[in-house]
Amino acid sequence: MPTVRDRLAAPGPHFSVEFMPPRTDADEDVLWSAVRRLEPLRPAFVSVTYGAGGSHRERTIRVTQRIAEETTLVPVAHLTAVGHSVHELRQVIGSYAAVGVRNILALRGDPPGDPNAEWVAHPQGLEYTSDLVKLTRSLGNFSVGVAAYPDKHPRSPDLESDTQFLAAKIRAGADYAITQMLFSVDDYCGLRDRLTAAGISVPLLPGIMPVTSYGRLLRIQELSGQPIPADLASKLRAVDGDADAGRAVGMEHAITMSEQLLAQGAPCLHFYTFNRSKATIEVLTALGMAPVLRR
Fold first, then answer.
1. Which of 18, 69, 70, 160 does the annotation list as catalytic?
2. Full pLDDT tens readout for the chain, 295 residues
3. N- or C-end of the chain: fewer Cβ atoms within 10 A?
4. Are 75 and 68 in contact (CB under 8 A)?
């Protein structure tokens, strides 16, 4: 199976997408509909989330295996340290290797139940994402990615500390980093420049999802702790309650931001799909990155 490292090294621009493991049979039908619609557009890779505390671990492994076996896509399996001993983590990594998956996104993970609660390591587990990266790389020929915050992690005291934590994860063996949901090109460029100043040169992928309502924007801000652009908030607030107008505002912002990110040299646009394909395909079409749809 190709690695994300190899895919990102090829001429771009690229895009990638993120899926969640389905909770029901109906959710699974929705997921596979999105997979089949996006597959012809040849994303660099698709990632499958893990669930807080490993709550969807078995579904993640099953969906990732099915993508590997039944499609031409390159799957990336999420793996979190929260709630797991090192022994359990070794088992999960072995499960991925057994089905031919060699691409893993290593995450510390949020506390189950309340993402803003105090993070406590498993007594026989790992404290830092850098430790999980090292463990994964020690168990085979894996390509490993990590997460990055466009501004800074809510628990980081300042940008400098946050940059050093991210640099440590990459120096532990990560091949690339994907940002949490991004609202501003300036935030992406600032993070990229801080990494460059720290001597880090791996691909940095901006995370994108069109935000189509003022309420959703506030909810995302609450969960992520990231600042939101005043102009986007103002435009969505002005059309609050009008679903079509809110969607138009969100799509315009996502397309414009994606154009600017590519102009700034972003190697790959990473779309948070929530197991839907329509918005992602619309953005790609506007960018000229969906040639199949223009035939």
1. 18
2. 899 999 999 998 999 999 988 888 888 899 999 999 999 999 999 998 876 555 566 777 888 889 999 999 999 999 988 888 999 999 989 988 988 899 999 998 766 655 566 666 677 889 899 999 999 999 999 999 999 998 877 777 888 889 999 999 999 999 999 999 999 999 999 999 999 999 999 999 999 999 999 999 988 887 777 788 899 999 999 999 999 999 999 999 999 999 999 999 999 999 999 888 999 999 999 999 986 444 3
3. C
4. yes
Residue 259 appears among annotated catalytic residues = no
Q: Which CATH class is domain 4-211+266-294?
A: alpha beta
| Contacting residues for 173 by C-beta, under 8 A, at least 6 apart | 133, 134, 136, 137, 144
Query: Comparing C-alpha atoms, which of 288, 264, 225, 273 is closest to residue 41?
Result: 288
Q: Is 97 helix (H, G, I), strand (E, B) or coil?
A: helix
Domain residue spans in the chain?
4-211+266-294
- Residue 270: closest CA among 217, 209, 222: 209
- Whether this prediction's pTM lies above 0.90 is answered by yes
DSSP letter string over 5-30? HHHHHSSS-EEEEEE---SSHHHHHH
